[in-house]
Request: fold
Amino acid sequence: MSAASDVAADAGAAQAMTPVLSLRGVSKRFGAVSALTDIELDVHAGEVVALVGDNGAGKSTLVKILSGVHQPTAGTIRFAGQDVTVADPAAALALGIATVFQDLALCENLDVVGNVFLGRELSPFALDEVGMELRTWTLLRQLSARIPSVRVPIASLSGGQRQTVAIARSLLLEPRLILLDEPTAALGVAQTAEVLDLIERLRERGLAVIVISHNMEDVRAVADRIVVLRLGRNNGVFYPDATNAELVTAITGASENAVSRRRARHMDAAGTEGAGA
Amino acid sequence: MKAAELIDRTDERLHRSDSPVDTIRLFLDRIRSGELGSLPVIVGLVLICGVFEGLNSVFLSSGNLVNLLYDSSTIGVISLGIVGILMVGEIDLSVGSVSGFSSALVGVLWVNMGWPVWAAIAAAIACGAVIGLVYAFLFNRFSMPSFVSTLSGLLAILGLQLYILGDTGSINLPYGSRLVTFGQSAFVPPPIAYAAAVLAGLALFATELRTARRRRGADLSSRSVRSIAGRALLLGAVLAALVFYLDRDAGVPWMLCLFIALVLLLNYTLTRTRWGRAMTAVGGNREAARRAGINVARAYTSAFVMCSVLASIGGILASARLASASQQAGTGDVNLDAIAAAVIGGTSLFGGRGSAYSALLGIVVIQAISNGLTLLDLSSSLRYMITGSVLAIAVIVDSLTRRSRLSHGRA
Reply:
């Protein structure tokens, strides 16, 4: 344990720079299929990392590993400087990893308060509706969210508002890392902008954020770093100033792009040197 | 306190409901978008009462109302269980058989085998719980649709009922015993009944006032003291009037009080406990509930067990009412009435929407129809047809309001 911290210190990472989450050599096999091979990923507090890749690149598998749905076949997960195993979704939540899945998983027949506190209601035998409503307003205010009333059923909210409710719910347990799976996939222009604002607010609050998206524009608008997966492997790390062509090339592998590969390899090496040893 | 300072009234898109005109407009909006609540049932009940009273003036007499409410209590208890199982989006078609089997079991254990009556009742209720556990096991373990498992249960348990009753076919429960008295002639003494009416008003006033104080303390919008007092007064007055009217005949049956107590208990657990929230969530979106950490299998189990237990209790009450446990108990329209009552009262067949009060309202409607038709001396063939049509109308209303809620975004 102490040896590991020494190594981390050798890497020159100040305490503040210790990544909230760092994956080393994470692999996942389903039978004969390698869904993920040797994935390396670092996410720091107050940083938005976008995870992009084509269909079947392994993004969803990676999210499922982090949220405790799947267990990795090999590799280590370090969370807040500790080696951890994420045995099930409850363990992920207990660690401080919250996941907002693509389909949001909200109950349309319950109101906003009911959904935010679903499964974690205050005082189980005489629900504290006032306390829950207050806390819900606090969470929504932290996100500067504009939801007219928390006593309306989810069914009456727009897509962007539902996404807001799902994110507010994930904040209830005060996580340190939040995973957003395709948060803008089903949204219109204005609602997408709303959700991107939300993501920036999460970053301002010092959370580590992983965003999975297909939309290059959204990704470049909000991400601090863009991690590309291709066929289950790391295929480069980019910054928002990367051109669309560079990103698309890395995602699809359509043409051999040695420059981006080389650059990506350098970046990975810089990030992993020491800890990977 | 100005409305603008309240936490939940800051959004300018919100429609205020400060003035009476606004309140009425909001109410109409809700109705148009399919948020009907218990309005159609109450309108239907008034219509039904008007028609039957016009055809036969005995219908609204004190004596007939006492009878009607007494009869409502037995199937009403069964219907409460149906509300619970419909909340999670499943169904139990065997409640009639379970109720008949329970009454037969009480008859056999108590009258034929000489068990103490309480032990026979406890055994029957325990059997109901076991039946519910079996359905839950079949559902959770083998994903057997409740429609099929309870349909086969309907037959199997009816067989069991016939088997334990044997050749005699029918067991008479002793008159004068406490169970039969409870089922036929136990009425609340008027002073207690009036006191209960007043207490109900006071209790409503106290709880709502407490909630309003807490909300005001937390800068949330709250009901005004005047409106709370008005509602409490209305409730107390309506109950007192009902007591007065029933007391002109035999009075308020204790069995009705038991039924209403169960309704209030289920209403509290459904709306104010984590268990009730879990049931609603499972009925609304099972996968979302599972991901929120709710033990979905346990929610289903509790619904199935509660439904079968309430069916047994209803069966025992019915046998007390008839002073007999027979092969006919629980057959015929008990199943249909219990399920129809829940749906007519406003509990959705699609899961996730409903309330304990729907069993109370629905069973009164069903009993009013059947009682009125009996008073008119109509044949049972016509009664079946009319009850069937009412159920069909109730389900159509349920489907239409659901569609309307979806299109108005209130599902």
